[in-house]
Amino acid sequence: MTRTSRLISRLWPERLRAASVIEGRNRTSQLASIGIYVIMSMSFIAASVALSNTVRFVERNAVLSSRQPLFLPISLIVVVFSFMLTLAAALTVARERDRGTFRVLMFAPVDEVAFVLGNFAAQIRTYVVMALFGLVWASLATYFLNLAFSTQVLLAFAASVPTVAAVVAFGLLIGIWGGKTRTAIAYLVLIALAFIGLQIGGDVVANTTFSQSPTQNDPIVVVRNVIIAANSAIQWVSPYAQMSQGLDAILDGNLGKLALHIAVTVAQSTVFLLAAVLVLKRKGSG
Amino acid sequence: MQQRLAHRPAGLIRAIKAAGSIFVVFFAVLGMPIRSGAQAFPRERAFVYGVTNYDGRLYESTLAPPSVDTVYLLADRTNVLSPRNTLAYFWPITNRYQADWELMNELVTGTLQVSVGGRVERSIELSEYVVQYDIASPQDSLALLFGSEARAKFTEWDKAQSEYRTALEAYYAAQLRWNDQVNILRQKSASGIVPPNLMPPEPLEPVRQTVLSSTPAQGFLIALPVGTYDISVIRADGTLQPDSKKTLVMFEKQRDGISYNVVPQTRWIAAESSENDGDVVYALRGSTLYLQPHLSGRYNDLQYGRMLDPQDPAARPDRSRWVAFDAAPSSKMIVTRGAGPASELPSQFYYVRQLPGTGLGYEVVAFDPGVMEQPSFSGHAIQLNEPEIDIYMISDTGAIVAGSRRRIVALNTDMVWMPYAFGIVPAAMGVIVLLARRRATRRVGPEN
After folding, report:
1. d(Cα B382, Cα B379) in Å, to the nearest integer?
2. CA distance linking residue B294 with residue B323, whole number of Å
3. CB-CB contact of B89 with B42 (8 Å)
């Protein structure tokens, strides 16, 4: 065994222990606050609005053909949950630095990797709890409305975990990179809204009915082409774009494609986490 | 002072009059009727490809003007590119470049060079071709004929058309003669009614030609595998035809399937389309649905859209589209209701009868050829009394037709409030957590 590998084998258990302590502290604090429950309720009510719109459509039009009426509500739930957790992740790390507790923490057997990993794991474990609530909500809606039961819903929730992980990792990076809490939040909100906006904007514009004879100069075509170009450019960095394509892969039954999108999202998480650690090391505890 | 005051109104009136005159002249100029005129747009001599493309069912025609740099065609099917010089113009009504074929329609003789990565893969010579099909069964009878066979088949078709026209003229003449004979017989009859035994035989209408044919034309016949190619026309004198360089994308269908038009009885003119294999059809309990299965294919939206119209700006590369073709041939629809046995669901013709009265209303009844002129639609009728029904098609061999499975579900629309109720549960849990925390905090207060 080389010296480096001996060092690593001694270092990582310590790191994981420290990360676990940070994770436990953050998760307990999050689950014990009312905010997370209110956010869950808000997201379920937003999802209910989307679902009841589908039901109303059937009432008015007598028939609706849909691949999966729960995917829009689930997407809403995932977006709201991920946004909340990302904001929480960014706030936690930015506050630790703002208040100077990060400097104190660095005197303990905690390094930058353990700090980032602990905060990351806390949000992911919280998300898993929230996703289970989401799954219960979706299952009850399926049962009572007599929606067709589908393993696609289960897969969608499972596939959302890497998406949320990537978004949270991004939040940590912004929280550390932004420095002050306010600046970090401003950056995060702007970037997340741009990603979400492009994703939703792309879908909305794609479904907009074109005039009978659209030209290359029609504003809607220009806007649409700009959004398509932007989406194709950001799809490799935006977890939401990957999630959208992953949901399409689930609907197509293309598990290979789903695995690809999950792999891309995992790669995004890894890059964001590594970048967060590097930025934290560069900035130091001050 | 008084004089000035006395003059002021007169000056004011003069000023108003002058301003008024200017105003009238200004608006008269503005309001002058614009001379009406013909909307003729400048035509320019241009090289275009006339495209005869196979769309998955039949052949369509379109135009690839100089503004189009890529032509999309279905792979492994014979398509035709016809090199032409014409007068092109921009038509703002449809926002498309059009060709004025009447003023100029010159065939550019030469060879089509098909290259991949700068290497010439194929040189295609001009061929004469015609497209023919029988409107009674377009997909089975569709043929793109070329060379001497094209000319021979067209001559045969033209002769048949000519014979049909002659027979039709003879029929009309015979019909007139027959009418005259019947009138004379009616006048001779005391009752004004011609006895059946004296009635002359009515002339028979000749059988209408159902085969359609294009006129023979010259073009490059292209049948290439999937791929991206560069094409250009080398003229007879060996020079490159300007504007003939384009990218040619040969694409294929992504998937075959069966799409259903789902016609609800309560909205029979507003059918819902169910295109994907995994689609679930949601409807109201107790409703009647009529299913119309069609063969369909899934294509990339940009490729298929630009194949039909190379100037289409709305087609998207990141989307797919299902294209429904003919009704699914000789397939049976099988339905299973819950755990019950599978049963065949026959297709029937239906007639929509308007209800009498001033209010709107109709009823859908089975078509009776004895008393009804023609059916309104046909379909497999399903009465949705169960929570869910599964349907699929089987072919003549008894195999399930790929992409034909659908689930039809009766939605519990009266339970729409339930998801909202579940949505409140986490907030209620949050309040409980908060109260429990406060209680715990009080318990470990400063006095302890």
Report:
1. 9
2. 10
3. yes
CA angle B305, B307, B308 (to 5 degrees): 70
pLDDT computed for residue B3 by the predictor: 43
| Tokens representing residue B386 in the block | 């169960």
Instruction: Find where tokens 């089509």 sit.
Output: B112
Three-state DSSP class for B252?
coil
CA A150 – CA A251 distance, rounded (Å): 10
Euclidean distance between CA atoms B402 and B380, whole angstroms: 19
ipTM of the complex: 0.82
Q: Which residue type does A29 have?
A: S
Cα B37 from Cα A204, distance rounded (Å): 42
d(CA B383, CA B388): 11
Q: Which residues of B touch A35 (CB under 8 A)?
A: 430
Q: Where are the beta strands (DSSP E) in chain A?
A: 63-66
CA–CA dist A113, A15 (Å, integer): 7
**In whole angstroms, what is the distance from residue A252 CA to residue A246 CA?**
10
To the nearest whole Å, the CA of A1 is away from the closest chain B CA by 50
Distance, CA of A99 to CA of A199 (rounded, Å): 36
Going A202 to A203 to A204 to A209, the CA torsion angle's sign is positive
CA distance A81 to chain B (A): 13
How far does Cα A112 stand from its chain's mean position?
Answer: 22
In this predicted structure, what is the pLDDT of residue A64? 92
Picking from B20, B44, B80, B103, the residue whose alpha carbon sits closest to that of residue B242 is: B44
> What percent of chain B has pLDDT above 90?
53
How far apart, in whole angstroms, are the C-alpha atoms of residue A35 and residue A29? 11
- The reported pTM is 0.75
Interface touch A41/B387, C-beta < 8 Å = no
Orientation angle between helical segments A71-99 and A239-252, nearest 10 degrees: 150
**CA distance linking residue B70 with residue B72, whole number of Å:** 7
DSSP assignment of A226-250 = HHHHHHHHHTTT-HHHHHHHHHHHH
What are the chain A neighbours of B390 within 8 Å (beta carbons)?
none
Pick from A56, A45, A71: nearest CA to B418: A45
Does the pLDDT at position B246 exceed 90?
A: yes
Kindly tell me if the per-residue pLDDT of B219 is higher than 50. yes
Alpha carbon distance B300, A73 (integer Å):
27
Strands B280-284 and B406-411: parallel
Nearest Cα residue to A59 out of B380, B410, B360 = B410
